[in-house]
UniProtKB/TrEMBL annotation:
It catalyses: Hydrolyzes the link between N-acetylmuramoyl residues and L-amino acid residues in certain cell-wall glycopeptides. Residues 112-320 form the MurNAc-LAA domain. Keywords: Hydrolase, Signal. InterPro entries: MurNAc-LAA_cat, N-acetylmuramoyl_amidase_3. This is N-acetylmuramoyl-L-alanine amidase.
Amino acid sequence: MKMKVKHFYILYLLLLLPAILSAQTSKPISSKPKNGEGLHSFMIRNHLSPKEDMEEFLQLNKGKFGSKNSLLLHESYLIPVKQTNLFESLFGKERETFPIESDEMKGSVFYLVSGHGGPDPGAIGKYGSHELHEDEYAYDITLRLAKKLKENGAKVHIIIQDPDDGIRDEQILKYDNHETCMGETIPLNQIDRLKQRTNKVNECFKKDTEKYRRALVLHLDSRSKRKQIDVFFYHYKKSKNGKILATTLRDIFNEKYGEHQPSRGFEGTVSDRNLYILRNTTPVSVFVELGNIQNYRDQQRFVIADNRQALANWLYLGLKKDFDNNK
């Protein structure tokens, strides 16, 4: 998209999102004892260890006990919610252990496919004296989205994987060809690559039982250096739910650009494309082009880590809205 210079702002100042939710672990819940229930039984029923959690439980409910810390039927006792951490080695050593934020996406499953990888770097852009490789940036944004989804209760299958990279904060993401398709070597032939990742999505889909299942494929586009573009969303022409999801994602981006750059405008579109992966994946799927890797202004969307996170956050908000609408 063409845009006047006076309307251009460095995205890292504009795309940051506040935290969606504070962690649930800081807010205790309450429970009343049953008739005849002793302290130990009450704690066990509420998933507490009498040995490990007794001191915290007594302190939290100070003044609510009878003799010898007996429970009173008319009292509601605060139950400390224990911190629960998740683990995903693909996120890298600094981020592989992370807390749960919420369960608002519980009951959803996502199949996240970052474009290219292995022997295929995808599009390559020039950024000063450096090269930007499409597969590295698509993969980083995919990992950030996967983490956000997992933090909020979703089940996530990361289809393209690189055990060496993790989520990275550098501007220039070093290129390698270590990516696999869930442990399998990625073939050089393009059709074989597409079949392999499509088959992996479908294999995972068959094993999942959740009602809400969606696939998202993330790519960067390559056009003329002068061509600035917005984010585009594609769906299979026969997929009604795919079009709905693509439109929901587009609307979230339009809304966020309106908040952060009201004079800029947003021209990202939704359309159908006869792409192999959209045509052959079993779950509802959307293909996302995140910008032009050749255009300097679009490159700011990728090289700045906070902007990569913002893209992931906005995609998350769109997926959450679609999930909520399908409950």
